[in-house]
Design brief:
Distance between the termini: 59 Å
Shape: elongated
Order of helices and strands: HEEHEEHH
Structural class: alpha+beta
Strand content: 15-25%
Strand order of the largest sheet: 1-2-4-3
Helix content: 40-55%
Length: 128
């Protein structure tokens, strides 16, 4: 009985570690800082978006308003965008893409060059 308990414990730890490895890969690929379920299909995620000011905040949060998004907040100081969305209707990739289409580089996509040049001068952050 003791051997079975140890085997079950080992299998549980192994399973948990393999799940964390996959999550770390996701973070590296699209720049997600954190993602976690909120309730049912609702998910919250955070990722970096470059910008400078309160106008950028308004532009980024407006650009992210797509079907399925329930909350978006971009922090001017940390450059972190936190979104909450219904995963049956959208995902982080789609949200990052519409933000990039508005001219804002993020960890998933480079901002649209034409949209970037049309941003107010205060919003033209230093691009990589």
């Amino acid at each position: 009985m003791k051997k079975i308990s140890i085997l079950v414990l080992f299998a549980t730890i192994l399973f948990a570690c393999s799940g964390n490895k996959e999550q770390a890969t996701d973070k590296k690929d699209n720049g997600i800082i954190e993602t976690h379920p909120v309730h049912g299909a609702v998910v919250q995620a955070s990722f970096k978006v470059w910008g400078n000011c309160e106008t950028c905040k308004e532009n980024i949060e407006t650009a992210a308003r797509i079907k399925g998004l329930t909350f978006c907040d971009w922090n001017v100081d940390t450059k972190v965008c936190t979104v909450t969305f219904d995963s049956r209707e959208t995902n982080v990739d789609a949200i990052q893409k519409v933000i990039a289409d508005a001219g804002y580089d993020n960890m998933g996509y480079k901002g649209n060059d034409k949209a970037y040049t049309e941003l107010a001068s205060c919003c033209q952050y230093e691009r990589k």
